[in-house]
Amino acid sequence: MTQRIVTLAGGVGGAKLAHGLQMALDDPTMMTVIINTADDFQLYGLHISPDIDTVMYTLAGLANTATGWGVRDDTFTTLTMMSQYGEDPWFQLGDRDFATHILRTRALRAGTTLTVATTSLARALGITPTLLPMTDDPVATLIDTPGGRLDFQDYFVARRHADIVTDVVLDGIAAVRPSPAALDALSTADAVIICPSNPIVSIGPILAVPGLRDAVESASGPLIVVSPIVGGEALKGPAALMMEGLGHEVSALGVARMYAGLATGIVIDAVDSALAPAIEALGMQALVTDAIMRDDAGRERLAREVLDFATTLAAARAGAR
Q: How is 59-94 classified by DSSP, letter by letter?
């Protein structure tokens, strides 16, 4: 099959699989990554796009794999000076990372869209797949807890996502417009892959952008989800706690239920193989494999399996017509 692949991603798990796909595809320029921007925020007058930067640094080979965020071997001289001025550096930004935010902010203030700014930064780092924000418009994830409503980065970073989540609000989502480039990519995609990202605060905002879910549903190729839940736990981040707090079953089956009616296939880890029959009863096929990406080779292996799965599902769909 011609591998025009569109992935939806946010966070470390999404970045890892996108990196694997970049390595596995014969022509990585045929891949588009649509990235969550609902956790973007302003700090020190700069526009910070955490999910875009995690994907961008990972695909550029610059990511700090020990932390999951930021640039490898970065220094923090700027934040040290901030502290001397009395600032509380609660959000860690390295010196090289600052350069990204400064240039992005300058571009946005000059009237450039986030789409164009992202493309420019990614190309400068030698990234050949196309990275796209889900929208050029502002939208903010807000987290409701028993103690009140929190900005996402306050919940996630400052409070180390320790609060019970009772609701998630996407402030301004109804008014945003999808990235036109994202809609174009989805209209010609041979397959759409939802990376193993948090289904509530990474993938949820993307699918909530007016018009984007419809474009995903209208894509001619299969839609495959890679479960971020393995053995009843999230590999990284607060996905499991969020799912539990919002009443979802914390399992690969719970993930499948969240995408029922949208996904045609799901990739689950071998430890969850017993859930495959119940998942397939939801109307999607399950690929059971080693879904944990321990290193670059593991990312590429999983990506190749996902691509083969997409080819199988596409052939089955064509045969059924």
A: HTT-B-TTTSSSBTT---HHHHHHHHTT----S---
The 3-state DSSP class for residue 219 equals coil
List, in order, residues 6 or more apart from 170 with CB less than 8 Å away.
38, 139, 140, 141, 142, 204, 205, 208
Q: Give CA separation, 312 vs 60, 62, 67, 201, 265, in Å.
A: 30, 34, 36, 30, 10
Query: How large is the average pLDDT for residues 211-220?
Result: 95
Q: Distance of alpha carbon 233 from its chain centroid, rounded?
A: 18
pTM above 0.85, yes or no: yes
Q: How far is CA 133 from CA 2, 16, 201, in A?
A: 24, 17, 15
The alpha carbon of 215 is separated from its chain's Cα centroid by a whole number of angstroms, namely 17
C-alpha pair distances (Å), 4 with each of 120, 189, 211: 21, 5, 20
Distance (Å, rounded) from C-alpha 12 to C-alpha 65?
Answer: 9
Give me 194's structure tokens: 């939802």
238 touches 198 (CB < 8 A): yes
**Helix or strand run (H / E) with residue 319:** helix 296-320
The strand pair at 5-9 and 31-35 is best described as parallel
In eight-state DSSP terms, residue 157 is: I
Give the model's confidence band at 318: pLDDT under 50 very low, under 70 low, under 90 confident, else very high: confident
Environment class of 53 (CB within 10 Å of its CB; exposed 0-12, middle 13-18, buried 19+): buried
Q: Tell me the C-alpha distance between 262 and 154, whole Å.
A: 32
Tokens read off for 10: 């946010």
Tokens representing residue 126 in the block: 């030698």
